[in-house]
Amino acid sequence: MNPLAxxxxxxxxxxxxxxxxxxxxLLGVLAYTVGTHWPVRPVYDAAAPAxxxxxxxxxxxxxxxxxxxxLAFDADxxxxxxPLPASVTVDGTDADAAHIEFSGIDMNMGLVTQELDRIGDxxxxxxxxxxxxxxxxxxxxxxxxxxxxxxxxxxxxxETRR
Length: 162
Fold this sequence. Notes:
This protein is mainly β. The protein has one helix at 15-37, and strands at residues 43-47, 59-62, 68-73, 84-91, 97-104, 111-120, 123-128, 137-147, 151-161. The chain has a nine-stranded mixed β-sheet with strand order 1-9-8-5-6-7-4-3-2, with no helix packed on it.
């Protein structure tokens, strides 16, 4: 019996045709992956001044191109396990969306993410509840990201107290 005779049966793909089919499949996966992630928006980073205290008032991070992100918590006290209203103002770029991500500095408290609602040109607002720490106080990083033609990501550091 000829071993090549099985390659002509219906439903069996000959080995000589298998490589081109696999190659086409891999090219399709590559094209899909590049297409869903292209074009990549550049990311610009800035940080609020270290001496800015969000418990006392708003803080602003200024980017090298002159754009800025201002973060304010609309609360008398920054307390975990209580709703914390946040407002963000983006100047110098036409941001169409914004979100905020919180993470603990001295302790892993997970990542708390909140999409912000657009309430006007460059104005965003939302509310977040941060988890409680076993310590009396907890230092947090808040990254506010505003999406325009690029992503503007501003770092703010603050502390909550129980």
